[in-house]
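hi support,

uploading two proteins for the ticket. first:
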Amino acid sequence: MDFIGRANFVPARVNAKREDSWSVSVQGINLEIPASASPDLRSGDEALVLARPESIRLHLEPAPSGRSIKGTVQRTFYLGSLAEYDIEVGGQTISVVLHDPKAGDLHEPGATVYVDFLDANLYLLPKSSA
């Protein structure tokens, strides 16, 4: 798999392999990642979730599903048609890009936000890939 551009590599633990997805835990939340590739992983293995900055959403409140991670905005960069953020989440900085942000989507450094990963756009990699 070749990627062009930036990506976040988030530590995860494999819960289970399903027919068409992987169930993984990332900082206390469960994600279902499409099994587009079949890395040699088993339940309990440490892994990495590859999340492109565009595959992450930010919210001011926790998701009702309980699938969001609390973070703090470290850096904000507005480019008119998009906003780039560095978010500190559990001791790791992840990059987030929001296209066509509305006024309510703009977050200043120091703000508390909740990070939500778009499962369909994630990839699971063996931890040794880093």
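and the second one:
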Amino acid sequence: MVLSLNGLHAQRHMETLDRGLIAVESGDGVFLSWRLQGYEWYGYTYNVYRDGVKINTEPW
């Protein structure tokens, strides 16, 4: 028996999730982490705002 799978590609299953933000109080301030979307990859940068004021000096 010969099984040939040429031309078949795995499809990525994407859930419908919004961006999730986690903020955890730490000794030095607040640790921020967030969920990336499936279409976002390396090379994206972000600015972080508190009460409408940018709080980072350069994009993360």
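thanks. also noticed: The chain has no helices and four strands.
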